[in-house]
TrEMBL record:
Keywords tagged on the record: Oxidoreductase
Tree of life domain: Bacteria
Pfam families per the UniProt record, alphabetical: DAO
Coiled coil: none
Protein name in UniProt: FAD-binding oxidoreductase
Signal peptide: none
Amino acid sequence: MAYYRPSPDGKRILFGGRAFGRGDQPQLYSKYLQDFMIRVFPQLEEAKIDYAWSGYVAYTFDHVPHIGQMDDMHYAMGYCGSGVGRANYFGRKIAQQVLNQAEGKTSFDQFPFNTRPLYTGKPWFLPAIMRWHDFADRRGW
C-alpha cells in the first residue's frame, strides 16, 4: 500500500507506505520507502529524499476503531491507519456524548477490545505479517 500526492507548493512529492514492523526507525524506514517509491515510480530513481519520518499506528485486531467510555473516561482509539479524518469525527462525537447529546452516538460505540493468544502488548508478530503483506503486494494479491 502506498499513498502519495504533490506538496501544497507543487515542488515535492509526499510519499508514504506501510511500515515494515521493526519499530520507529526512520533511518531504516527511509531506505525501505525510497526503494518502494522507485518500484512505483521508476523515473524517480535519482530523486533526493529531503525528509523522512515514521511512527506507530494504532491498529485493532478486529480492524475497527473503538469509541466508548470506561470509568467516566471517554476514549477514541485504534483508527487503523485512518486517524486524521476519524479523529476529527470521533472528537466531535465524544464531545456530544460528554454533553449527553443523542447525536453523539455512533455505530462504533462500545465494541469490545478483542485480543489474541500470546499477545501481551508488544506486537512481536508484526515483522512477519508485514513481510507477508509486502510479498502479497508484489504479486498483486
